């Protein structure tokens, strides 16, 4: 029998910066049953809740916003309430109710523009990708990190469906930072949590902030500064991007570039072989 290959063990030297999926609105809905490989499409939600989700995602798209829906859960907790989180660059907001009926009075496009029903959530929430049905690395490496975060931040840690980038597992989305992290280790959790709780980006594990385009994500990661905003990117020859940020001390400019030669990486445990990627590098 061939030895099992895990994609995240095959790609430990691939740069992660600039690999977060750009997202305007995160929509995270608690769904407690077992997740299938494509959980958002293949689940047992009732027809009314499915229609609510589809209609609200369509409304967000119609408003020119890229929304990314996710299921979340805390399997060790037995409770009647269902949690909804919605995150934008303006912050993290939430609402909860028994079952799913409470969702029917929430119009996400309206709430994103002017939150009324959704309430602001200030303390960081940690969402760990653990969906082993989608990729075995997510469960194999995500579940220990979820357990470790539960020990450190309690109920603020959640499991979440596929975040993208199996090969960077374990992946953790932190909101309201809007930051996606990869390659977390149990040994590094204390430092990781301390930085996030202090309001900083944890650069040793940062893939990127999802509110930014990839080139700005990469440039921010290169600066290793948590006080940057309003990126302006200019594409230069030879795959180079020059990105200028605002900071309390004035403009900060960094250059990054796509790797001139593609790398062959195993992107998923289920892939039959490597595929080409062109990661960002400091320029």
In words, what does this structure look like?
The chain contains six helices and 16 strands. The chain has a ten-stranded mixed beta sheet with strand order 5-4-3-1-2-7-6-8-9-10. It is globular, with a radius of gyration of 19 Å. It has 283 residues and is of the alpha+beta class.
Please tag this protein with its features.
4-stranded antiparallel β-sheet; 2 domains; globular; alpha+beta; 283 residues; Glutaredoxin; 16 strands; single chain; 29% strand; 10-stranded mixed β-sheet
List the helices and strands and how they pair.
Layout: H1 7-10, E1 25-30, H2 47-62, E2 67-73, E3 81-88, E4 91-98, H3 108-113, E5 119-121, E6 125-129, H4 136-153, E7 157-160, E8 172-175, E9 179-181, H5 189-197, E10 206-209, H6 214-223, E11 229-236, E12 240-246, E13 252-258, E14 263-265, E15 275-277, E16 280-282
Parallel strand pairs: 1-2, 6-7
Antiparallel strand pairs: 1-3, 2-7, 3-4, 4-5, 6-8, 8-9, 9-10, 11-12, 12-13, 13-16, 14-15
Named CATH topology of the largest domain: Glutaredoxin
**Widest β-sheet, arrangement of strands:** 5-4-3-1-2-7-6-8-9-10
Poorly predicted parts: none
Work out the strand percent: 25-35%
Offer a quick outline of the entry.
The chain has helices at 7-10, 47-62, 108-113, 136-153, 189-197, 214-223; strands at 25-30, 67-73, 81-88, 91-98, 119-121, 125-129, 157-160, 172-175, 179-181, 206-209, 229-236, 240-246, 252-258, 263-265, 275-277, 280-282. The chain is an alpha+beta fold and 283 residues long.
């Amino acid at each position: 029998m061939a030895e099992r290959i895990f994609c995240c063990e095959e790609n430990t030297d691939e740069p992660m910066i600039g690999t977060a999926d750009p997202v305007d609105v995160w929509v995270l809905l608690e769904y407690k049953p077992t997740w299938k490989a494509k959980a958002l499409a293949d689940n047992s939600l009732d027809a009314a809740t499915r229609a609510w989700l589809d209609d609200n995602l369509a409304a967000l798209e119609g408003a020119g916003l890229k929304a990314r829906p996710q299921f979340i859960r805390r399997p060790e907790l037995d409770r009647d309430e269902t949690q909804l989180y919605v995150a934008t660059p303006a912050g993290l907001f939430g609402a909860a109710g028994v079952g799913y009926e409470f969702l029917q009075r929430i119009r996400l496009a309206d709430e994103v523009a002017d939150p009324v029903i959704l309430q602001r959530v200030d303390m960081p929430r940690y969402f760990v990708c653990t969906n082993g049905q989608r990729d075995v690395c997510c469960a194999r490496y995500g579940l220990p990190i979820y357990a470790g975060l539960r020990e450190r931040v309690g109920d603020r840690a959640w499991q979440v469906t596929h975040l993208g980038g199996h090969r960077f597992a374990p992946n953790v989305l932190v909101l309201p930072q809007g930051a996606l992290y990869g390659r977390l280790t149990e040994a590094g959790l204390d430092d990781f949590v301390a930085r996030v709780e202090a309001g900083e980006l944890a650069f040793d594990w940062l893939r990127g902030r999802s509110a930014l385009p990839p080139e700005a994500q990469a440039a921010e990661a290169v600066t290793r500064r948590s006080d940057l905003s309003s990126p302006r990117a200019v594409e230069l020859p030879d795959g180079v991007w020059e990105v200028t940020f605002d900071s309390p001390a004035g403009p900060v400019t960094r250059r990054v570039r796509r790797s001139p030669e593609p790398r062959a990486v195993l992107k998923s445990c289920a892939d039959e072989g490597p595929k080409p990627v062109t990661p960002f590098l400091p320029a």
